[in-house]
C-alpha cells in the first residue's frame, strides 16, 4: 500500500549492470518482481471483491502509474478489464482511462471479437485518442492483412485512411510464405523484381499483398472473403493499378512466371473490378477521396467526420469506400 511513496532508482552505470529497483524504507525489490507481485495482488482483489466500476477505475489508475503497458495476453488482467468494460460501459471517458494499458498490435494477435475491436475504435476516436493507426510503420493494418484477418482490415479502414508501407520489412513476409507459394515458385523468386530495382519498396509491398490474397483465397475459412477486402484496400490507395504487362516485365526470365502471374492478375482484376489499362492513372475523383480521407484521419475525424461534410449522400458513401 506504499506504491506512491516508492522511489524509482536510476540503473547502475558502472561495469556491472544493476536492474532498476523500487526502494522502500525497509527493503529493496527488483522492478520485475514488484510488478509481477502487484499484478497478482490486483487480480486477487478483483476476484475477491468482484468487478465494480469504481474499483476497476482505481486499479486502472494504479496500473498506469506503476505497471504501464505490456504485450497483451489472453485471459490477462487487461483482458478481463476490457471484457468487463465492453459488457457494461458506454462512457468513452472511462474507456479512455483503459486505452493506455492496451497494446493494440499484440491484442489483435489474440483474435479478439470484431465487436470488441469496433468498441475500442469507436470510443477511442470519439474521445480523440490516438491509437497510432497512422504510425509511419503502419504495422497494425498490414499485419492483420498478412495474417489473413480480413474483417479486421475492413474495420480498421473505417478509422485509418490507408495502410503504410514505408518501413515495412518485405523480407519478413516473404520468408513466411514457403507453404503458400505455388510449387514451382520459391520465396527468392518473389523478391527478384525488388532486388533488380524493377519495383519500388512500396510497389513491391502492394504486389505482395495481392499475391498473399491469391494464395489464401480458397482456404475454407476465407473462401469468398478475400476479394472484398482487397477491393476495399485498393479503394483507399492512391497508387496506380497493376497491369499484366508490368508484372510480366518485372518477372521476365523467372521459371513458370507467365502462368502464375497470369492467374494472380486475373484474380486481382476480378477482385477490384477497376480500370486496368496500361498507363492510365487513377481518376481525379479518386485522388480527391484519398486526400480528404488522409486529412480527416490525421485529425482523428474518421469515420465520423465524413457525416459532418456538406456533400451529397453518394459522395459520403464514396468517401467511406462503399463505392
Please provide a written account of the structure.
The protein has 323 residues and is an all-alpha fold. It has 18 helices and three strands. The chain has helices at 31-49, 53-67, 77-88, 92-98, 104-108, 114-126, 139-146, 150-159, 170-175, 187-190, 192-195, 201-216, 226-235, 244-250, 257-272, 284-298, 304-308, 313-319, and strands at 7-8, 21-23, 28-30. A three-stranded antiparallel beta sheet has the order 1-2-3. Strand 2 and strand 3 (28-30) form a beta hairpin. The radius of gyration is 24 Å and the shape is globular. The chain starts with 6 loop residues before the first strand and ends with a helix. Mean pLDDT is 81; it is low at 1-17.
Topology:
Layout: E1 7-8, E2 21-23, E3 28-30, H1 31-49, H2 53-67, H3 77-88, H4 92-98, H5 104-108, H6 114-126, H7 139-146, H8 150-159, H9 170-175, H10 187-190, H11 192-195, H12 201-216, H13 226-235, H14 244-250, H15 257-272, H16 284-298, H17 304-308, H18 313-319
Antiparallel strand pairs: 1-2, 2-3
Helix pairs in contact: 1-2, 4-6, 6-8, 7-8, 8-13, 13-15
What does the average pLDDT come to? 81
How can the largest sheet be summarized? 3 strands, antiparallel
Number of DSSP strands?
3
Secondary structural class = mainly alpha
Write a brief caption for the model.
55% of the residues lie in helices and 2% in strands.
List keywords for this structure.
3-stranded antiparallel beta sheet; SOCS_box; mainly alpha; SOCS_box-like_dom_sf; 18 helices; 323 residues; SOCS box domain-containing protein
Amino acid at each position: 500500500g506504499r506504491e506512491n511513496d516508492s522511489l524509482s532508482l536510476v540503473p547502475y552505470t558502472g561495469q556491472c549492470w544493476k536492474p532498476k529497483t523500487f526502494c522502500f524504507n525497509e527493503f529493496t525489490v527488483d522492478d520485475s518482481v514488484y510488478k509481477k507481485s502487484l499484478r497478482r495482488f490486483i487480480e486477487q482483489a478483483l476476484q475477491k471483491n468482484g468487478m465494480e466500476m469504481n474499483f476497476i477505475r482505481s486499479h486502472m489508475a494504479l496500473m498506469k502509474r506503476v505497471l504501464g503497458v505490456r504485450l497483451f495476453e489472453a485471459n490477462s488482467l487487461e483482458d478481463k478489464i476490457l471484457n468487463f468494460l465492453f459488457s457494461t460501459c458506454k462512457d468513452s471517458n472511462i474507456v479512455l482511462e483503459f486505452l493506455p494499458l492496451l497494446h493494440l498490435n499484440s491484442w489483435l494477435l489474440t483474435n479478439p471479437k470484431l465487436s470488441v475491436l469496433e468498441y475500442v475504435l469507436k470510443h477511442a476516436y470519439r474521445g480523440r485518442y490516438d491509437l497510432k493507426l497512422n504510425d509511419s510503420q503502419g504495422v497494425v493494418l498490414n499485419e492483420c492483412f498478412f495474417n489473413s484477418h480480413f474483417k479486421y482490415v475492413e474495420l480498421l479502414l473505417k478509422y485509418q485512411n490507408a495502410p503504410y508501407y514505408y518501413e515495412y520489412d518485405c523480407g519478413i513476409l516473404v520468408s513466411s510464405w514457403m507453404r503458400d507459394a505455388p510449387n514451382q515458385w520459391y520465396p527468392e523468386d518473389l523478391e527478384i523484381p525488388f532486388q533488380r530495382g524493377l519495383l519500388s519498396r512500396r510497389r513491391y509491398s502492394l504486389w505482395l499483398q495481392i499475391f498473399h490474397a491469391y494464395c489464401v483465397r480458397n482456404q475454407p475459412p476465407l473462401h469468398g472473403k478475400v476479394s472484398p477486402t482487397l477491393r476495399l484496400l485498393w479503394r483507399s490507395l492512391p497508387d496506380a493499378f497493376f497491369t499484366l504487362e508490368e508484372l510480366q516485365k518485372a518477372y521476365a526470365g523467372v521459371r513458370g512466371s507467365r502462368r502464375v502471374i497470369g492467374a494472380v492478375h486475373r484474380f486481382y482484376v476480378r477482385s477490384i473490378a477497376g480500370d486496368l489499362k496500361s498507363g492510365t492513372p487513377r481518376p481525379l475523383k479518386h485522388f480527391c477521396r484519398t486526400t480528404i480521407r488522409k486529412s480527416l484521419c490525421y485529425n482523428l475525424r474518421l469515420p465520423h467526420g465524413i457525416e459532418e461534410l456538406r456533400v451529397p449522400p453518394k459522395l459520403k458513401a464514396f468517401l467511406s469506400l462503399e463505392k
